[in-house]
Specification:
GO terms for molecular function: ATP binding; proton-transporting ATP synthase activity, rotational mechanism. By secondary structure, the protein is α/β, with parallel strands linked by helices. The chain is built from 16 helices and 11 strands. The protein folds into 3 domains: 64 residues, 434 Repressor (Amino-terminal Domain), CATH 1.10.260; 170 residues, 3-Layer(aba) Sandwich (Rossmann fold); 92 residues, Bovine Mitochondrial F1-ATPase, ATP Synthase Beta Chain, Chain D, domain3, CATH 1.10.1140.10.
Length: 350
């Protein structure tokens, strides 16, 4: 039962406006979103929920539920992403953020990194003037201005290289992205991984802003305000990669331990903000300090921001991230100052 996942691609094609459709049959959009990304395992979901989704997609349960298939991960070497919400290769990734929370910097950084890994990067420019996209275009191989042009370029380049494609949410609302994905599935291309962004910030107020997703990166206002970048929420961001039955158990165990620590740290931090460290029980001080160190470690200098930050970009392999996070969880970094963990690459112990 653990090696089951929803056929997200089918849901995207059959039920473009999944938020409204889910509500119409009594389903919570958040529940549907969590099923799509794997945050709620299919094997633990209610049968009525699966039946309702199958009814919406006009398919059988056998078509809705995929057995024995794992979602492959693209290792970004960005610590917070690879640990908490890995990039699903060939999937659709939604960036949920308000304006000026760093989503476009992250997208630009991903394009920069994936180009180095021989991916072809394609950006569908939105209508209107968006100067904030300038940094993304610098790291884009091909810029297109319509869905039809996007299809032509993906069909042309997709036969010889893997594609990463980015588009604005407007194309989701019109249904054009789903039509494009359906057309792409009918042709023989290596792989296309789709990033969806929202330049207006409206997606942050919706339960299912992009429809079914394989990976969702939820940006965090508190991290942004404290300049902890990438400001991706480690609790609410998730990926169907984590649902795979053959995922490295070490990764899953460390990810769950890290989430548990950060969840409690955030609760304790609200107490500290209200009344200082004396508000924390003595038994929780160690938890607070380790959470503080883990949060600092998960910040990372980006290559595309070197000119602005003065810090050299850093890449950290997943196995190195897991080793470092385990050390922090187990107390090996307790003697390190927070300043020694902020915006570093791999952990270097004294």
């Amino acid at each position: 039962m653990e090696n089951l996942r929803l056929n997200v691609s089918l849901l995207r094609r059959r039920v473009p406006n999944l938020t409204t459709a889910a509500k119409s049959v009594g389903l919570r959009p958040a529940t549907v979103s969590n099923l799509c990304t794997g945050k709620i395992p299919v094997g633990r979901s209610e049968v009525r929920t699966l039946v309702a989704l199958a009814s919406l997609a006009e398919c059988s349960l056998d078509e809705l539920i995929i057995r024995g298939e794992n979602v492959e991960m693209i290792e970004t070497k960005i610590k917070a992403l690879d640990l908490f919400a890995p990039l699903a290769k060939g999937g659709t990734i939604g960036l949920v953020a308000r304006q000026k929370m760093g989503q476009l910097v992250l997208l630009s950084e991903l394009f920069f990194r994936l180009k180095k890994e021989s991916f072809t990067t394609i950006l569908l420019m939105p209508e209107g003037d968006y100067p904030e996209l300038k940094d993304v275009t610098i790291n884009t191989d091909i810029i297109v201005h319509s869905i039809e042009e996007a299809y032509e370029k993906i069909a042309e380049k997709g036969s010889i290289s893997e594609i990463v494609f980015a588009a604005d949410r407007r194309h989701v609302l019109t249904g054009e992205i789903f039509e494009l994905q359906e057309r792409i599935e009918a042709i023989n291309i290596a792989s296309i991984t789709t990033f969806l962004v929202d330049l207006t910030g409206e997606a942050a107020d919706e339960d299912l802003p992009y429809g079914p997703l394989e990976t969702i990166w939820q940006f965090d206002a508190d991290l942004t305000a404290r300049h902890k970048f990438p400001a991706v929420n480690p609790i609410y961001s998730t990926s169907s990669v984590l649902e795979g039955a053959h995922l490295d158990q070490t990764h899953l165990t460390i990810q769950q331990r890290a989430q548990k620590l950060l969840r409690r740290y955030r609760e304790l931090r609200s107490l500290v903000n209200a009344g200082g460290m004396e508000r924390i029980p003595a038994s929780e001080i160690q938890t607070f300090k380790r959470g503080e160190r883990l949060e600092a470690y998960l910040t990372q200098p980006f290559y595309v921001a070197e000119a602005y930050t003065g810090k050299k970009g850093e890449s950290v392999r997943l196995h190195e991230t897991l080793q470092d996070v385990r050390k922090i969880l187990d107390g090996s970094a307790d003697s390190l100052a927070i300043e020694e963990l902020n915006y570093i690459g791999q952990l270097i112990e004294k």
